[in-house]
Structures are given as structure tokens and as C-alpha cells.
Amino acid sequence: MAPKNRIIIDTDPGVDDVLAILLALSAPPKDLEVVMISVTYGNVPLQSCLRNVVALFHVLEKELKWRESAGKNIGFRSLRAFKPIVAVGAEHPLEDELLMADHFHGADGLHGVHETHPHLSPTDAWHSLFTDSASEPTEPAEPPSYSSFFSPSKTAAHKEMLRILREEPEDTITIVAIGPLTNVALAAAEDPETFLRVKEVVVMGGAVEVEGNITPCAEFNCYADAVAAARVYALTSPTPASTMPPVLHGKSTLPPYPAKLPRQLKLTLFPLDITSPHELRRNFFVEKIEPLKRSGSPLAQWADTFMIGTFNKIDSILGDGSEAGLSLHDPLCIWYMLSREDPAWKPVPKPEDIRVETSGQWTRGMHVVDKRVRAKPGEIDTKLETHPEDALDALTLDDVPGDTLSWLSVRKGNRIRRIIASPGEDLFAGVLVNMIFE
313, 317, 339, 411: least buried by Cβ within 10 Å? Predict the structure, then answer.
């Protein structure tokens, strides 16, 4: 029987990205298959992000052997049932300057774990898995043993994304984007019709009614490539051209979308509003991880290094002596994929017109919502029969005096499904830790 959910994880690991991937790989096979891990830049440069993904599989190989020898529950059932593709994507944003979050995640993205635990880090032979042999003369005679858990691809991540969407039945693949949206935007621009075969795009990004975490009004992933985010969000609109980012300096990295598209994109947004309150606290983590470390768990030793480094960093940022808590931004998207049928997951009553600012000096990456109390004329008279494909009707629906930038149009603007409640802010940390480490 096919899994309920088959996903592509587009990621820039990163501490919470690694936790998200581990959670996905520990899922029951009936619930979740990770079809591909699409790697992008973000928290640290692209090659460091890729190294962290490869290291994750290297550690899991050791962990599974240790669990088996110790007579413990092996776990990681999805990992053992399926073999995801790992593909390498964009090195930089579409049009913005490159931004890193190594101030928070450490220079390698995992608080120096590769230096402190070299035995848990793969040798540089992994590079050959993702490059042509002609340009990589040091290719080993045989692939590293840990690569048996994934299929390395030498094709660009956005092209692999499109290939999967083209070959798999429509509405069977969900993209879970937990990094900058560059890879997703590249796929959508190259072949929008194929891209729109996706079942859903789940995005960790943005700050709607709360402050940002990289600027006063922007969240990191969206700020890192605001143009990519704006382009992807635009596909949720009945008229994508209405919310596309403006072309600056007379040129655009990617072409506009065709005027006619087969359907609108379903995009489910997890902004800081919902992700930040879901925390993994230091004392709870230490209590769970210490016995496993003493028992010899490679995964516990590896994770403890970057988690304690993260808690220490949070302490230095807050400086108020309170117990550090890591917001589980990215893992929350995976929990949604595992439990989306739970009625406790609540979206906004109807999709919101959330637009991304791409050209503001102080507001780049800001998620803009029209909070004015103004009716949309096209929605007032529900008995009025209109034909939006007719030019006259379209003009009537959209021509609202004083409506600058078409915020009151029923045919323009984005349609974002934003999540505002989960099965439990206090529940999730226990679910995460138990699934990964027990």
C-alpha cells in the first residue's frame, strides 16, 4: 500500500532542518515516504548544507548498527523502507545578495560537530557522489557504505523535482520547503504546468502578525530570497501576474508565467506565528539524551553537540537566565505531514491574500496583509452572475475606485492557506524526541 504522504523536502540544514529530516525518516512507512531531499543554500553555504545531509545518513548508518547490536528498537522505519534521492540545488538567491545564518547555526550549520566528532563525519569522498567523474579524479573505487540509504543525483535539484512531478501521478507529491524557496521557484519557472501537478507546497516561512527573526518584519527563509517566495506565492492567485515581483533595473532572472495555467497552486504556510511557540527546551532534551549518550548511541552523541551549541547560543542572545528553548520551525511542517488528518490543525477560515515585499529598503521579505476593513465588491452580491473570462466582466470585478494594487479584486491577489493552530504546542517536543531517539 502506498504511503499516505509522499514528500520532497527542500532544505538548508541547519539544526532544526536536521531534526525535521530525522523526524521524517523515523515515520511509519504507511504514513510518509521521503522521495527526495532537495538541498539549497541558506543557513550556511550550499556545500556545507550538502555535507550535513550526507553526514546525517552517515550517522544513521552507525546508529542503526548500534541499535541492532544493543538489542534496541531499530526505528527509522521510513528510512529502511524507502531510498530517497539527494539532489543539489541553488547556491545563491535569484536576485538578492547571499545571506547566511551561521551566526546562529555555527560555521558548518551544526555548531562544529564535524570538528568535535570527526568519527561521525564522512570523509571527503562524498563529493564524488554528486559530481561528474571527469571533474572529480579522486572518485573512490566503490561508493561509501552510508550511501546505500540514499540515491545521489548529479542533476540539479529543481530538475529532479520536475522529473518526479512529471513521472508520478498528479496530486501525489507534496513539496515541504523548509529553506529559501529558490529551488522551488526555479522548478516553477522552468515548467509551470508540470510544477502545478504538485499536490501541495508546505512552506516554513514568513511572519504575518508577529515580528521577524532576521529583521523587524521578515523571517529568515523568505528574506534570504524574497523574489523566489513572491514568485511561488503568485501561483496561488487566479491571476499570478498580479502579485509577481516587480522587474528592477530592466531585467529579471526568470521569465513570467504563461497567461493561462491549468490550476492554482495549493500552498500551506507555517509562519513564525505558529512555529515559534513550539519549542524543545534544554532540560527536557538533556534528560532524554544523556542516558542514550552514556549507552553509546552515535546519533545521541552527534545531536547532543549541535543541540547544546544551539541552546548555548540562545542563552547568549536572550541573556536573561531563562531556560533556553529551540523553536521547532521546520520539524512542525513534518509533524503536519504525519498528522494532517487531526482536526486540531486549523487553517485560517479562508485563504489569505498574503503578498511578499521584494523591493523595500527596510521591509524586504515582509508578509503584507490588507488589514483594512473593506468589502470586496465582487463578493458582496453572490447572486450576480459573472463570467470572469469575459473582458467586460473581468473589468467590472476588478475596477474598484481607489483600490491601488488591486487588494479588493476577486481575481487578483494570492490565496494562502495559513496554519494558525496545531494539536499542541507543549505536545510536539515529546513527539519529536520520542520518534527520533526511541
Answer: 317
Q: Of 10, 113, 96, 91, give the one whose Cα is nearest residue 44.
A: 91
Q: Is there a contact between 237 and 414 (Cβ–Cβ < 8 Å)? A: yes
18 and 67 in contact (C-beta within 8 Å)?
no
Q: Which pLDDT tens digit goes with each residue over 108-118? A: 778 788 878 88
Taking residue 201's Cβ as centre, other Cβ atoms within 10 Å add up to: 24
Neighbours of 331 (CB within 10 A): 30
Longest dimension (CA), the chain: 73
In this prediction, the residues of the chain whose per-residue pLDDT falls under 70 are 100-103, 105-106, 133-141, 249-250, 378-399
Tell me the C-alpha distance between 44 and 108, whole Å. Answer: 7
Residue spans of beta strands (DSSP E) within 190-276? 200-204, 267-270
DSSP three-state, residue 396: helix
Among 53, 47, 46, CA closest to 20: 53
Q: Determine the 3-state secondary structure of 160 from DSSP.
A: helix
Amino acid at position 294, single letter: R
User: Distances in Å between the alpha carbon of 174 and those of 200, 213, 309, 329?
Assistant: 5, 26, 32, 18
- Cα angle for residues 123, 334, 301 (degrees, 5° grid): 40
From residue 265, give the alpha-carbon distance in Å to each of 185, 223, 406.
Answer: 12, 21, 20
pTM for the model: 0.93
Beta bridge partners of 355: 368
Beta strands in 92-186 (DSSP E): 151-152, 173-177
* Distance between start and end Cα atoms, the chain: 26
Burial class (CB in 10 A: 0-12, 13-18, 19+), 308: middle
Q: What is the C-alpha to C-alpha distance for residues 11 and 37, in angstroms, rounded to an integer?
A: 7
AA letter at 354: I
User: Using CA atoms, how far apart are residues 413 and 428, in angstroms rounded to an integer?
Assistant: 34
pLDDT tens digits, one per residue of 28-64? 999 999 999 999 999 899 999 999 999 999 999 999 9
